[in-house]
Write a structure and sequence with these properties.
Distance between the termini: 42 Å
Modified residues (4-aspartylphosphate): 58
Number of domains: 2
Shape: elongated
Keywords: Phosphoprotein
Protein name: Response regulatory domain-containing protein
Radius of gyration: 22 Å
Order of helices and strands: EHEHEHEHEHEHHHHH
Structural class: alpha/beta
CATH superfamily of the largest domain: Response regulator
CATH topology of the largest domain: Rossmann fold
Helix content: 40-55%
Largest sheet: 6 strands, parallel
Domain Response regulatory: 4-131
CATH architecture of the largest domain: 3-Layer(aba) Sandwich
CATH class of the largest domain: Alpha Beta
Number of helices: 10
């Protein structure tokens, strides 16, 4: 198991809770409530030739009276990767948008993404084991989110336009006319309703309003 890790989290109670839950399995746990402080600790550990093996970081850090160079977990990850490319990284955040999660996985090759939830302590412990073994780990809800989003490639341009019209408050009965005005001439009300039902099924939405909320959260509209 990891011997030395750093937790970057601006909420003291979360920092303390993680430290308490992990201290039995990890002998050296350091914490930081500011991204700048976390980066300094990483630099100092490298200088001392006792580098951290793992960084667990939130993405959002509240503003404070302090002047800050790094204001987000993403900026911290980028800065840490520049000076210690081989460090393992677990993101631990309430952020739940597909685009953001995929961006972190693809751009920074993070090793785990755990969504803050009721079971997040258990998920962090699972993540530690998987990442230590050389695997990538996503918490169950994130795994499901990304799996469902794999089908987004099946969404056509007309589907996105229908979602945009719904989000603007356009009634379903008026959508065919709007489609005809924008180079989608072959859609009647029944066709529009079928597409909306398909989208509701894809995103597990129970109403058009719920569908709009989900697709907005995922950055589709």
């Amino acid at each position: 198991m990891f011997q030395k890790i750093l937790i970057a989290e601006d909420t003291y109670s979360t920092n303390e809770g993680l430290e308490i839950s992990l201290k039995d399995s990890i002998p050296h746990i350091d914490t930081a409530q500011y991204c700048d402080d976390a980066l300094l600790k990483v630099k100092k550990a490298i200088q001392d030739e006792l580098p951290f093996e793992l960084l667990i970081t939130d993405l959002s850090f509240e503003e404070s009276h302090r002047d800050r160079k790094l204001t987000s977990g993403e900026e911290l990850i980028a800065a840490v990767k520049k000076i210690q490319p081989d460090i393992k990284i677990i993101v631990f955040s309430v952020e739940y948008r597909v685009g953001k999660i995929q961006h972190l996985l693809e751009k920074f090759q993070i090793h785990s993404y755990v969504h803050k939830s009721r079971e997040d302590t258990k998920e962090i412990k699972k993540a530690l084991i998987k990442v230590y073994e050389g695997n990538t780990y996503l918490s169950q809800d994130v795994e499901k989110l990304l799996h469902n989003s794999d089908n987004i490639e099946d969404i056509e341009e007309v589907d996105l336009y229908i979602l945009q019209l719904l989000s603007q408050g356009i009634p379903q009965k008026d959508i065919p006319e709007q489609l005809r005005k924008n180079s989608f001439p072959n859609y009647r009300l029944r066709s529009v309703q079928l597409r909306i039902n398909k989208l509701k099924e894809l995103f597990e939405a129970n109403s058009p309003a719920h569908l709009i909320a989900i697709t907005k959260d995922r950055g589709l509209i």
